Amino acid sequence: MPLRNSSTRLFLSLLAGFVCLLSSANAGVSIESVEVGIGQVTRPGVWTQLKVQLQSTEAVDCHVEVVAADPTGNPATFPSAAFELQPQAPGSASLFFMTGRLEDTILVKLVSADGKILASKRLVSAEARSDLTNFTVVRHAVPVWLLAGKVGSSEKGKSTQQTLQKLFAARGVHISHLDSTNDFPDHWRAFSAVDTIFLAGSFDLTKAQSSALNHWVQQGGHAVIVAGTRVEQLAASPIAEWVLSDREVIASSLSDLSGLEAFAKSSFRIPIVSRIKGSIIRAQDGIDAVTGIEGPLLTRSAHGFGRISLLGVDVDQPPLSRWRALDSFIVAVADLPATDSGEEATGQRISHSGITELATQFQIGMEAIPHVGDRSTLTVLGLVLLFLLVIGPLDYLLVHRLLKKPGLTWITFPSIVIAAGLLAGSVAGGANGKDVRSRMCELIDVDSSSGFVRKTAWTSVYSPEHRRYRIQIEHDLDALASKRPASPTVAELTVDPTAAAGWLRWTASPESNFGGTYRASGLNSGGAGYKFFEELSGIENLPIPAASDRILASSTTFSVSPEMFELNLKQAGTGHLSRESTFTHHLPGPIDNWLLVYGNRAYFFDHRGGELLGNSAIEPGAVWAATGKTTGGRELRSFLTGSSFQKTGRKGAAGDAAEFAYAQVEWNRRETDLQTILRMVTFHQFAGGSDYTGLFNHALSDLEMSDSLPLDRAVLIGELSLPAATVQIDGQTLQLDQQETFIRVLLRVEDAPIALTLPKFEN
Hints:
The protein is α+β, with helices and mostly antiparallel strands. Helix content is 21%, strand content 33%.
């Protein structure tokens, strides 16, 4: 017994020592906190910044990794740059990653230089905040606002902050509030999940934060700047360099706020008893949304592909802070679309087809690779189900009726399964070939006023076999440079030196079916993992199953010279261009299949108005004219929907007049032509939105340009015979089966001078 007790004590002491040794190896390094996105909120499939606070008792060379499942359930690893933790000093690291589901679990790991895991932490997400989750992943339809500053008041212990928060939440808005501008990100992609940013009196940003905010707005964001009585603080802030460009904010004494009441569409009056301090805004273009006796109080102007709204009245001071309709006013300023009562019914009606978003239709279009058969998820699942229904009866007939030996089912059943798999592989290989195939779609957006360019290249990579790939997409920035020696080149004005590499990401449909970002997370065990490059320009070991494809996208931004476009566009004051409007471009190739949209008017190539064999393309250096021989015009919505008045053949009530009926062409949800889909994405609101298409445009809303048209901007969309990107597979350039390049240009339209001539008294 003593021997046994001594042996037990020895074993326990050794075990305790081993446990202490293991714990001491990691006890010196710990993950103190993790911040996901801004305010712990993000969306599926968008770049999200993750910040980690660390602590160590000794110097360690390491990096952080985030492992998150993609929509197919495969774990993707996103690494940070390497850094050194100092002993007895707090450390921090940040990186960007994407989550593939609404509800999922991500793993944050601290990894040493030799690959050992020093510390780890699991984070759980959900669609709604709770005590059981660490961050929130909302759908693309949910508006996300970022508030820096204060809206409402908290005087006399009665705060309106929580009341406003509840009112906005009732409208489906998710608000992230920053207590200090120190928490503002310094990279524009950190705002990817945000729709609208409010700077309500907080302007003390750093130059890096101002640059990030500026870049985000140029990409398509909406910034609401509440100047109010803080004109001097705004002028001294780094954001004044771009916010006050072509705009002027003047301190003023205000007496008329009735325009704000009308803008909010509210019957509640603003409790103003005397003049208040505020400011008026003068903008060279855009619209004056609210004008008082003293001047414009709220203006909205275009900034790149985004918008800047400037407000001259404080929202955290009386009288607006006491206004009962303040929430409605803020909603109107943020341009929050009204809730569609038929949205749920529409979604239920179209769910039978598996398509609820234009983004899904675009995905299906990208999967239409030449020389590759149909590989839709519904088709494959249907064939699998059919096979499962047939294989059982077939094996029964074989072993019971034909062979009359039921015991052979242990041999025949696996043989049938294997033979069916070999046959399917052989048929697929014979029909689709044995080579890797790919299709690419490039979208180049140019703001002619500033020369700012955003570029996205989507590619679908089809694999004939189960295999892992190393994939990159490289952008040719010089492709937009004109061939004329005197013209400016892209290389002179490139914003980011790494823009040629871009950021590569996977894309998926915002649906609840297999492979969709809204599908339930389920169990993700045994998935084939892969890893993103540290600079996020490529993916290592991306698994693609046999006879299937993955759709990837790479985006980048840079600048070209504004002199690439010579503009003489003027508005006629009736929602269309004046007869004298012209423009000329100096792109390296013609713009074909073009469409120019301004106001409520669409201009296009008129085959009937032009010569029989006339060229429909806009050639470089050629002058486009609004009243040209080959330029036709039509009301925008009727053009997008194919609406027309058709003669019914019936007589009217008087018997001497024919009756006409209004008809429009239904949107084809099975359309796979990418140019047609991108046109609808660009002008979805003007076409009638989901009421016309039956589809929503939430996931691709950043590509819609309907909001730019009222801000003195025209949109030119067309096709370029200009490949500007390549796909690298395992270090080799892939020969593409099809490559399409589309361009969209924002063209500034000047106000036409209005000559008012009073009639003579005698006339």
